[in-house]
Amino acid sequence: MTTLAIVSQKGGSGKTTLAVHVAAAAAAAGKVAVIIDTDPQATAAAWGDWRGGAEPEVITSPPTRLAKTLEGVRELGAEVVVIDTPPHADAAAREAVKAADLVLIPTRPRAFDLHAIQATADLVRYAGKPAFVVLNAGSARGVQLLAEARELVGELGLAVCPVALSDRAAFAHATAAGKVAGETDPQGKA
Ligand SMILES: Nc1ncnc2c1ncn2[C@@H]1O[C@H](COP(=O)(O)OP(=O)(O)O)[C@@H](O)[C@H]1O
Ligand SMILES: [Mg+2]
After folding, report:
1. Per-residue pLDDT, 107
2. What is the pLDDT of residues 156-170, one digit of tens each?
3. How far apart are the CA of 18 and the centre of ligand 1, in A?
4. C-alpha of residue 91 to centroid of ligand 2, in Å
5. I need a labelling partner for 4 at 20 to 30 A (CA). Which of 45, 96, 130, 177 fits?
């Protein structure tokens, strides 16, 4: 079982968007994929409801129960688990990072947002977990901004995921319909 934690202290950075897209991609690739939603706002769980039971399965878990929840999904045969986390929640982020094989840190490629990933960077470093920053929702034409963002992330001692997600309406439209961009618009850039 491979466990990914999606962590970023900033709200609106794209945690839930990334979580559902990664988990849906794993399911589409034939893996038994599960999303564990530890955010009290339960956005990923709502997406699962809108999806009407199609894979990946979404379950909710309070952060303090995460280890137990992971044990349960492992016994049920989960192969890829994606943990979605709330913003501004040190304890929840810490539990998710502790449980993860890999941490993904989505952030918008803007100075204020990049500044805010410092706390997450520290958390990941103390835990000694492999991690990638995923630059999300930058302008598709903002090449200069992306290059600057990559440099800033490097200065924080973090690796940047080679794949960046641009600002595409298809991400928002698809998730609002309980789907992912690759399902609603298979040929689209998102
Ligand atoms: N790459 C993107 N392109 C367009 N809209 C996006 C993108 N990533 C996120 N969004 C939108 O931004 C908002 C916040 O994203 P969300 O994934 O809920 O962030 P978080 O879970 O970190 O709070 C949502 O309305 C989502 O649809
Ligand atoms: Mg969210």
Report:
1. 97
2. 899 999 999 999 999
3. 8
4. 16
5. 177
